[in-house]
Design brief:
alpha+beta, five-stranded antiparallel β-sheet, 72% helix, 9 helices, 275 residues
């Protein structure tokens, strides 16, 4: 009977231990709250100051250029670079003070969690910068492809430009996610398979659809030194004066009307030159 534990003593020891832990924890909790509140105050002051300075030096012009990109415009988002950077700095400062507050509480799991989030912020900043630069490069390539197609009178230039835009944007997004610490191997493999299939199908379909256009473009390299504006020529039954030669066609003035002849015809038919 003497070996039976004293239940009252056990409960008393447990209660005393809990009270001692609570008494020791309350000062740490108050200190942690004070540190966190101080961090929020400092972060807010720094955010307002940085946003004002960035706005005055004109950094929001970058945001205006981003807003002009079709993809961003369709999202109905008004990007303010000064506000975005100031907000990121705000959260970074808050997390620094939150780390100090977590260490004050002496809870290892909470400290590791806050510290991990704090260390992630610089990676997210770099990933964001990569994405912004990728947007500008993708938009520039899109405009270049559209302009190139327009200069050669190739139809579907806007569609090609849009495909190029999303191609490079997705590549940039995958690299940005990798920079942020995410595993992108599966995403890269899937993207490569999809792009390979799209390129093959598009090349086959567009090549068949535009072979006449390409033939006219190639013919322009052979014909540009043999014919010039002002000459009078005859192709089959059509006779007239050359008034314009572009990359795919030749325009003849035939009496009161004009006739447009594909440059490919100059290589396939008999052409008589009168002067």
């Amino acid at each position: 009977m003497n070996n039976i534990p004293n239940l009252q003593e056990i409960l008393s020891n447990i209660a005393v231990g809990l009270i001692n832990q609570l008494v020791n924890f309350i000062p740490r909790l108050i200190s942690a709250i004070v540190i966190l509140l101080l961090g929020l105050l400092i972060a807010r002051l720094v955010r307002n100051l940085v946003q004002t300075v960035l706005r005055k030096i004109g950094i929001d012009k970058i945001g205006e250029q981003l807003n002009d990109i079709d993809l961003v415009r369709r999202m109905n988002t008004d990007i303010k670079v000064s506000r975005a950077l100031a907000q990121v700095l705000y959260f970074f400062i808050v997390l620094i003070f939150a780390t100090a507050a977590a260490e004050m509480l002496a809870v290892a799991a909470l400290t590791d969690l806050v510290l991990g989030i704090t260390n992630l912020i610089p990676k997210l900043i770099v990933a964001g910068l990569m994405l912004v630069v990728g947007l500008f490069i993708s938009e520039g390539l899109k405009k270049f492809v559209i302009g190139l197609c327009n200069s050669f009178n190739i139809s579907g230039g806007r569609m090609l430009g849009t495909l190029v835009f999303f191609f490079f944007l997705i590549i940039t997004l995958i690299n940005a996610l990798g920079q942020a610490g995410l595993n992108t191997e599966l995403l890269e493999s899937s993207f490569n398979l999809i792009i390979g299939g799209i390129i093959f199908a598009f090349a086959a379909g567009y090549g068949l659809a535009s072979r006449d256009v390409m033939a006219n473009i190639l013919s322009s390299f052979y014909s540009k030194n043999r014919f010039k504006e002002g000459q009078t020529i005859q192709i089959d039954e059509v006779k007239g004066q050359i008034i314009k030669i572009d990359s795919t066609s030749m325009t003849l003035r035939t009496g009161e009307t004009t006739t447009i002849i594909p440059l490919q015809a100059l290589q396939m038919k008999k052409v008589e030159v009168f002067d």
